[in-house]
User: What shape does this take?
Amino acid sequence: MIRESIKTQRDPSIISEAEERTFGLLVERHRTNAIRMEDFIGREGYSREGIERDHLSVESKKARIKEQGTEPTKRAQILEALLAEQIELSDWFGPSALTILPSEYDDLYNGVDTAIEFEDKDGFQYLAAGVDITSSAQAVQEKIAKIKKRIAEGKLTRIKYFESERNKDRKPGPLEQVPLLIIGTEGRTIRELSELWLTIHRTKLAKKDGGTVLSEESQANQRQITKEAQKKIAEHRIQIMLLEQIEKQLTVFMEYAKKIKKNEIAKKYEDLLELIREILKEKEITDEDQEKNEEDAVNAAIEETLMQFDSLPID
Assistant: This one.
């Protein structure tokens, strides 16, 4: 489940006006796209009683999270929603990528914030992502250590409730042995993306709010501003940073799996790595933007952890 470390933020509840508005307009809409557990009633491998138990488990865990004060922050939820939207609208992860928002059960119990489906000449490949906005090296280490343990045990992530819109050959049901990775960015990038998103939707929002009717000249100017914002968000540096986070993790995890003779798991990582590298070949980034990516605190925490991967405990 997405988290933002309270310890590393002065007050994570304080977000910009642009972020607040983006949260209200985008996140609720994003949530409606999640897989619904009740849609699996009557399907092979699922019973009404089992699904009801999972619903109770979800409510119980949500209550514990609320009591502990570790609910996902608004900023973390904005990042997840923006990521899902732009992977599809702007091809952030290439033209063949499609996001699938998991059920609350898989979010809470399997750590999957979003699943990404890639289609290539050989069929479909799947990647599960945990979206993170903590810059705490310790928190990132704990999450990647859990992934290391799963590789060592030969058990990758399971998505219990899964259905693909495109893969018609696959019946709805559990998706097993899914590579789980950690991706994320820091607050300033989320603020920047929120401002761009609002700029793109400003005209629609003004009409909805019953705002002043603009002159033709003002409308033309607004269209130009919107077009520029769409270009900026479509080409935003974050997509390359996230793809590189994925590439580096796949490389490290693949090498570890090979080292401990988990060959089937290593092949999953290797196939995804080949796909991600092909996507990265089509991306371009300026030196200035690359420098900003390298300065990103969350990105740095992930890189630092991967450098220490061999020494991470798996107890």
